[in-house]
Amino acid sequence: MPAPITAWPWPTGRSATPYAPCRLWRASSGCTENRNMRSMLGVALVALSCATEPPMPYQAPSTKRMAARLAEIAQNLNPAINTYINAARVEYLKTLPQPPDTAARLRANAYLARELLRAGQSQAAIDEFEKLQPQLQQINLKLTPDVRVLLGLSYMRLGEQENCLARHATASCLLPIGGDGVHTIERGSRAALAEFTAYLADHPDDLTVRWLLNIAYMTLGMYPEQVPAQWLVPPEVFVSDHDIKRFADVAPALRLDLVSMAGGSIMDDFDGDGHLDIMASSWGLNDQIRYFANLGNRTFAERTAAAGLTGIVGGLQIVHADYDNNGYADVLVLRGGWWEDDGLHPNSLLHNNGNETFADVTEQVGLLTFHPTQTAAWGDYDNDGWLDLFVGNESYGGRIHRCELFHSNGRAEDLQFVEVAEATGVAVIGYVKGAAWGDYNNDGLIDLYVSRLTGTNFLFANDGPNEFGGWTFTDKSKEAGVTEPLGSFPAWFWDYDNDGWLDIFVSGYHYEASAGDVAADYLG
Question: SS3 of 249, please?
């Protein structure tokens, strides 16, 4: 057998990603004739092999384990209870027996059509609603919303897919829509106009459909001139009180106009080259997290696989911090938010190795738990120089998922987090949607604000260490007057008036808010 005489070493330094090495083999001593020719041929073949076979990206074993765990969870999601996996729900609904009663059957078909619309299968939804419309009229059965509204929405979504997504431009979907945001394929918006106009003739005070009608006219470049006066949303309502100019959407030019679901995004210099890179997530458990390296010449290159992130999926939110003080930003991926019983997913702590790769270290550092969440905040609450982590979990319907506070042990060589929420007094129970650290009372210790979608909010003052050496917090929310709004979402500390004291912003949230509520707000 030929003996290897050399092998390309793995790269060293910042780009030390292990690759499968290329090798050059020397013929054994028994081969004497045409040795030079054979050697040259061997070199040529090896060079060709190295040129045509891409290197295999390295992935940490711990990352592979997390990827396998996530794949198993995704495979076992239940479309009967999970209202967010719409494509799977479509297939599930198709397996259900049709009700024998005509009205019940039509309602079931309407439910399927709405699920098709949610799944992005707009043409299929249109086909279903158009079949339903005469059948509903025949037995005088009304749907809520009206079938004309649902059909109009389906056509609008089709127009959005054919234009804003397939032909994304810098002004796509930016209100008021104009310029290159106007649709070049008009069939969706024109059909939507017909449905909305017919509906408004019978329901002229419906603000939701009035708003949608104006949007449809915008997408056709016909706003405001051709909008019927009685339904016009005046252009002046879109004028800002302050002229801050428009920000240009440069994502299409940079090939960063990704199509995905809701998720998180981070811009930071992950590789330490002085340029801001991008990491983005999408909350579906089949949605790959994406990493784009900034090349420093106003272009980005996707490095997801090379960074060892293949199979790290999902994440309604991602938050970053240098938890181990190695000078590189690490990323926490938060999963399961809104999914309740189907959302018992692990989060992922992605350690930045400093060589353009990441490793999932969730289990190694003691952060592997299974709760639905989409919010977390890093902060050094005990001033020991090491970041700690608060995770806001979502309790619902009698199912308790207490919030977690993970304290860092500060050992660089064997860094571990210990869960101390109950011991410190911050084991909040509720549908937690926001969390933020900030020293609101200027005592040198960061305090914690927790926002809940259901129930009042909490402001925990950091008391510092007690006589036994443990750390505690005290709820000061009522005293500080910051328990509201009831039904809130993101929150953060900031000194908005520059008086040296941190203020708190808390955003309200309403499950059933509609386009009509938006229109009412704009119209005063």
Answer: coil
- Determine the Cα–Cα distance for residues 335 and 285; give it in Å rounded to an integer: 9
Residue 354, classed as helix, strand or coil, is coil
**CA distances in angstroms from 311 to 82, 88, 220, 350, 480, listed in the order given:** 22, 20, 41, 12, 45
Average pLDDT, the chain: 89
Which residue from 243, 257, 254, 414 is spatially nearest to 324, judged by alpha carbons?
414
Neighbours of 217 (CB within 10 A): 24
The DSSP secondary structure of 198-233, one letter per residue, reads HHHHH-TT-HHHHHHHHHHHHHTT-TTTTS-GGG--
pLDDT at res. 245: 85
Cβ contacts of 351 within 8 Å, gap of 6 or more: 324, 330, 358, 359, 360, 361
State yes or no: pLDDT of 29 exceeds 80. no
DSSP-assigned beta bridge partners for residue 464: 472
Where do the DSSP E strands lie in 426-496?
Answer: 432-438, 447-452, 458-465, 471-475, 488-494
Tokens in use for 42? 């061997």
- The mean per-residue pLDDT over the stretch 469-485 comes to 96
Q: How far apart are CA 133 and CA 107, in angstroms?
A: 12
Query: Distance of alpha carbon 314 from its chain centroid, rounded?
Result: 7
User: Could you give all domains of the chain from N- to C-terminal order, each with its CATH number?
Assistant: 97-238 (1.25.40), 259-514 (2.120.10)
Determine if the peptide bond prior to 224 is cis (ω within 30°). Answer: yes
Q: Give the pair of three-digit tokens for residue 448.
A: 């914690």
In this structure, what are the phi and psi dihedrals at residue 481, rounded to the nearest 5 degrees?
A: 70, 35
pTM over 0.85: yes
Answer for the pair 292, 303: CB distance below 8 angstroms, yes or no: yes
Cα–Cα dist 42/475, whole Å: 74
Collapsing DSSP states into helix, strand and coil, what is residue 490?
strand
